[in-house]
Specification:
Strand content: 15-25%
Shape: globular
Largest sheet: 7 strands, parallel
Number of helices: 11
Mean pLDDT: 94
Low-confidence stretches: none
Number of strands: 14
Strand order of the largest sheet: 3-2-1-4-5-8-12
Radius of gyration: 19 Å
Length: about 350
Amino acid sequence: MKKLLVTGSSGLIGSEVCAYFAERGWAIHGVDNNMRAEFFGPDGDTRWNQRRLEETLPNFTHHELDIRDRTAVIDLIETLQPYAIVHTAAQPSHDRAADIPFQDFDTNAVGTVNLLEATRRHARDSVFVHLSTNKVYGDRPNTLDLVEKETRWDYADPAYENGIPEDFPIDQSKHSLFGASKAAADIMVQEYGRYFDMKTACLRGGCLTGPNHAGVELHGFLSYLMKCNITETKYTIFGYKGKQVRDNIHSLDVARFIECFIEEPRVGEVYNLGGGRGNSCSILEAFDLAEQVSGNKMIYDYSDEHRSGDHICYISDLSKMKAHYPQWDITKSLDDIFEEIYQSWVERQKEAA
């Protein structure tokens, strides 16, 4: 039985990867220490997801481990000898990083190096997939010419019709401390691939979402938006008239691409992993979709001050992914995503009652 090591296993992508590969007969080893409760408070707690995995996946083993603990990371990988490693553990908030710079960098950058070096020493043939972020591009996408439409911003240059490609520049821009720490990790994953000839990939995620997201205001755009809609909580739009655009990809489609890469690995690769133009929406458009699903009107206010370094319009160009792995494509539409997130929050509300 092949072993898969998943860091951040109680998070959105980590838990989806655990379930997906468990269904395919893999032995799953999840690493998580519920740091999101420390980062975001009780609303970020992911113990419920850990319990769900332990109760529903027969071949799942939980490891209470902090990826900043270098010795523990090295010992675990030496002992397990996993066939593949999917690294999703992170401090994930663009805004929160400014308040906790040491924890952010130690988790995102140093934690990643700990895993890479442990893999190089003790499991060099393992496939290493790293969940990076589109924030490695900083606010450079905002320098593109944009056109303002009724409900969204869009690219004026037809060259970006499909979105932002992987060769888009990452320097000379404002990243946020989160974007900088993730860029450091991203480059190290590439470097370990190229320098040591290891099978590594950086997946620069757009808006990764799905029903198992513990959405909070500082992280988890669609999940938090739907939670506000259901609970009739005020949602705050930060700048850009609410027309800022994100492309959204369901966690299942992320897991499916990770499977493609593990089956046909490459060295030091980079992919922009998002929903593409077809799954893109602005905040205003997301309000409309949420209202259609739930029947509740959004309650919101508006702040003229946008978040520092925030993207005005970001759509992932999926051309490279589809060229390298033509068997992969988006299977979950934006409508599917909203419906599943809505149903998940309804169930959580019932359980909490």
